[in-house]
Design brief:
The chain has a domain of 49 residues. Helix 1 packs antiparallel against helix 3. Helix content is 57%, strand content 0%. With 96 residues, it is mostly helical.
Length: 96
């Protein structure tokens, strides 16, 4: 179950990166500076913004829920999941 959630989490991360990079800022093009309607969008001037905004919102919600659930699941396991759990410790000799 844990590995499945990690895989889903990575997929959602990549999805969020793609959706955020596809969005344009408000009035980002030259026509927007003069009040014109952008004609290069596939869904119309407002349809694409609404679709991408909804996809970003749902992706962010899923990202947060899965992040919290992964944290809870890892805290309940008895194994040591520290980043430094397998590294050997070195003791330095005192300087004279």
């Amino acid at each position: 179950m844990l590995i499945l959630l990690v895989v889903i989490h990575v997929i959602i991360c990549l999805f969020l990166i793609g959706v955020v990079l596809l969005q344009q800022g408000k009035s980002a093009d030259l026509a927007g500076a003069f009040g014109g309607q952008g004609s290069q969008t596939a869904f119309g001037p407002r349809g694409a913004a609404n679709l991408l905004t909804k996809l970003t919102t749902w992706g962010a919600i899923l990202f947060m829920v899965i992040s919290i659930s992964l944290t809870v699941m890892l805290s309940r396991t008895s194994a040591d999941h520290s980043v430094l759990s397998g590294t050997p410790t070195q003791q330095s000799a005192p300087k004279k």
